[in-house]
């Protein structure tokens, strides 16, 4: 459950690169603790730059970023041990096994007790479902398995916050499903998960809360259910007389009409008119209605409505 504490909070966070590129523009982000928070935006909208500032990897041009209640990058030494991050994509040593990779990773942490190392590594491998493949060389791992190995590395210590940058990027649908299921599990024991994605349906499936970025700016943030509810329901008519149907619907106040072959959709007229009246008007005008219904608005509709632009992404 979310509580009042913010796991991440930025105020006026801005990054302008030396070339003049304004990558992040006055970002006020609040990630309530205990949420699975989706950081959504098309490629180039500033997600990775924001995450790099949150992790203290680059300095903001102006504004502030707090992670787990402490200012970054100043508090990086105290904050980062409590944060598991998967940022640049997985890059294990190809000729070592998954287990060896984790043993080395753990050994690089001066605060990790060497006596409990093996047990810690095995527990992390089990946690991400790599127990059986732990002895295989990483070069034999699929991308999804490498991504799991990266998650296992992030889970070697107890973490209050997981930061995952595009964790399903490049995975096939099965790999995506597996990583998404794992993320949901990881969120169950109260830790905050912050993940970036350019996939709307991924955010809808996995996240409780989300923020939407476009061109370096925050468009909207809040609980996913509330964001999706902002999107209006749409009227959808299936008919062989699509042109006539669109005309009649327009006459009756339906806006934003789109016609694709035998389907017409649009936004219902303002007010509380019963959609059945529209159906009756169509039939009365001789339109042969095969199906008439209301479709629930999605996060994608909300995004389009909020930004006035499409979500130009390929899988
Ligand atoms: N080191 C840099 N120097 C100059 N410009 C940069 C640098 N890093 C990123 N940018 C620019 O800043 C903008 C935001 O990039 P960023 O990588 O943060 O977006 P993103 O939403 O994470 O997209 P992606 O999913 O493609 O990584 C882009 O226009 C990018 O070209």
For the record, give the distance between the C-alpha atoms at the N and C termini, rounded to a whole number. Answer: 31 Å
| Poorly predicted runs of 5 or more residues | none
What's the quaternary structure here? single chain
Number of helices: 11
> Quick one: overall form?
elongated
Unique bound compounds: adenosine-5'-triphosphate
Strand arrangement in the largest pleated sheet: 7-8-9-4-10-11
Protein name: ABC transporter ATP-binding protein
Keywords: ATP-binding, Nucleotide-binding, Transport
Pfam family, one: ABC_tran
Family: Belongs to the ABC transporter superfamily.
Structure notes:
- The protein is an alpha/beta fold.
- Helix content is 33%, strand content 26%.
- It is built from 11 helices and 15 strands.
- The strands form 3 sheets. It has a 6-stranded mixed sheet, sandwiched between helices.
- A hairpin with a 2-residue loop joins strand 10 (209-214) and strand 11 (217-223).
- The mean pLDDT is 88.
- The structure holds adenosine-5'-triphosphate.
- Adenosine-5'-triphosphate (ATP) binds at residues 17, 19, 21, 23, 41, 43-49, 198.
- Adenosine-5'-triphosphate is lined by residues 17, 19, 21, 23, 41, 43-49, 198.
